[in-house]
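Researcher: Re-running this chain for the archive, since the previous output was lost when a drive failed. Same request as before.
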Amino acid sequence: MSLCSGIKPDGGRCKAQATRGSQFCIGHDPDQADARRRRASKGGKRGGRGRPQAELADIKRRLLELTDAVLDGSQNRASAAVASQLLNSVIRVVSVELKVREVDELDARLQELESLLERQSERGGYGKT
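Model: Regenerated structure tokens:
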């Protein structure tokens, strides 16, 4: 395989290997520009209100505080039960958000692979250069 013909932002030549049937790596291939834009645009969309790990850590902290408050008698058990149910609902929402994001990312990757296969078949089949 040959090296990519792309030029880096600093003006130097890209040192990555070119993909099969192309003179560019995936980062410089003009045919991959849309896929790169889609991936880049997802960067700011991750996490909704925040990163899921941070949200889950916050919920865990709240549940532990709630537990301590119930055990030391400073929190009414009925109110704590309702708060716990609400926090569990938030956990389910975060879980669904993660699953939706995973499906979206897999769909984008599948579309990229299908596009790559289509271009390869147009060039004369898989494995031919």
